[in-house]
Amino acid sequence: MTTKRPAVVGITGASGQLLARGCVERLLDYGYPVLLVCTPPGARVWREELGVDLAGAMEGWQRRGRVTQYNVNDIGAAIASGGLPTAGMLVVPCSMGTLSGIAGGAAGNLLERAADVTLKEYRPLVLVPRETPLNAIHLENMLRLARIGVRIVPPLPLFYLKPVTVEEAVAQLVPRILSALGIPEAQEEPSLYHPAAES
Question: What is the spatial distance between Cα 54 and Cα 51, in angstroms, rounded to a whole number?
Answer without folding.
Answer: 10
